[in-house]
Amino acid sequence: MLDTHQLHVFVVAAETLNFTEAARQLSMSQPSVSQHIRSLEKHFNTRLFERAGRGLRLTDEGNALLPLAREIVYQSIRIEEAMASLRGEIFGSLLVGCSTTPGKYVLPQILVGFHRLYPKVSVVCQVSSQQQALELLCSGKIHFALSSRIRLPCTGAEFRLFMQDPVVLLAPEDHPWAQQGQVKPEELRQGTFLLREPGSGTYDAVEEALRQTGVVSIHELNTIMTLGNSEAIALAVQEGLGVGFVSHMIATRIPRGGVKIVPIEGMEICRDIYIGRQTVHPATAAQTAFWELVQTLNPLNVCGSVPVETMEAA
Fold first, then answer.
1. 16: Cβ–Cβ under 8 A, 6 or more apart, which residues?
2. Does 297 score more than 80 pLDDT?
3. Domains and their CATH numbers in the chain
């Protein structure tokens, strides 16, 4: 008979196309993942993976098995949770995707409260780009995602505004802007900037805020370095390499001294952070419990009064 656990290992390996990464997500050893795949290939008497350069790809047989295996694994989880619910218990697993800053500073606070209520539910957090997290959510491959972007065409998810995150301009303490205490939008052209990559939540928020000033655009800033991590920007500013925009959550957590938040006259930069859930598959008991908990949390609106809303991704 088919081994559901082996099918689960196959699904994760097929989605990552990397046995080492699959082992990490499954909390297994890489040799153990390989052994499960070999056993499954022996059961079906066919190869499911083949080498593609330095990586892996699914064979035709592997591609045919993947959607069927996903369904069997999903139904297995539903059966386990349904039987547990008869005993008044909620257990199972949640897959949550998020980008770096929400994953480090926002998500742990939610998960701590959830774990206290439902200790038998395991949670796996996948930190990735916002684009990747949304794609996984919209396809039903993860259950929840934290994101400041919801423009990705998607009929498989719904989102709720969870919090607002101020984005601030950070400068070295000895920088002229830090000394004068405030900077005008037009003065930004004179700065030397360290910025996040286009498409990140921070970049999008800054771009929109500058556009609304009608004075300067983000493309006019003298950008000497693009970094894919806001903490790296904060540390580079601390080293005196330039000025940069970072989440207020990060600005308040870097070691004291060496940097200063510089207000921009007439400007407020803010990014909305949404929490979304997949609607591709019926929600399990664990997923429903998590979403209901989220609904009880009051979003942190520190950038002004913004009503909480539930919406479908456009």
1. 22, 25
2. no
3. 1-86 (1.10.10.10), 167-270 (3.40.190.10)
